[in-house]
Amino acid sequence: MASHRIGALAERTGTNAATIRYYEGIGLLPRPDRQEGNQRRYGDDDVRRLTFIRRCRDFGFSIEQVRTLTSLVEDRSRSCLEARDLAHAHLVAVRTKLRELRALEKSIAQFVEVCDAECVGGPGPDCVILDDLSGKRPIASSCCGTA
Fold this sequence. Notes:
It is a single chain. This protein has helices at 6-13, 17-25, 44-58, 63-74, 81-118, 128-134, and strands at 33-35, 39-41. It is mostly helical. The chain has a domain at 6-61: Multidrug-efflux Transporter Regulator, Chain: A, Domain 2 (Orthogonal Bundle). Helix 3 (44-58) packs across helix 4.
C-alpha cells in the first residue's frame, strides 16, 4: 500500500489540504493513520475515495448526496438504482435551477436595458439603478438627476 502525505494526496486528487481536512472532519473521508511528526498518511483507497468525492462535488452533488453515494459504493447489499434515483433527482433540481437562472437573466437584461436607455451618468444617490434596487421608484423612471 502506497503512503501519501496530505500534499501528495491533494495533488493526485485535484483537491487541496484544507478540503481534505474538512472531509475528514465531517466523516466523508476516514481519518488517516499518523506517522512520524504526527503527519497524516494516506493510502491508495484514500486516493480512490477522495477522487470519487471530488468528482461527485464537481457534478454539484451536495455533501449529503455525496455521503449517500459513498455509502452505496461500500455496501454490496444496496442497489445501484439508488444512485440512479439520486442522480435523477439532482438532474431535476439542476434543470429547475437553470430555468430560474434563465428567468433571472432575462429580468436583469431588461433592467439593464432600461437603465442604459435612461441613465446618462451623474451622482450615485440620484441613480435609477440604485433607486430601483431599493424600491424607491419604478424602472421606467429617469436616471441620475435628469428628467
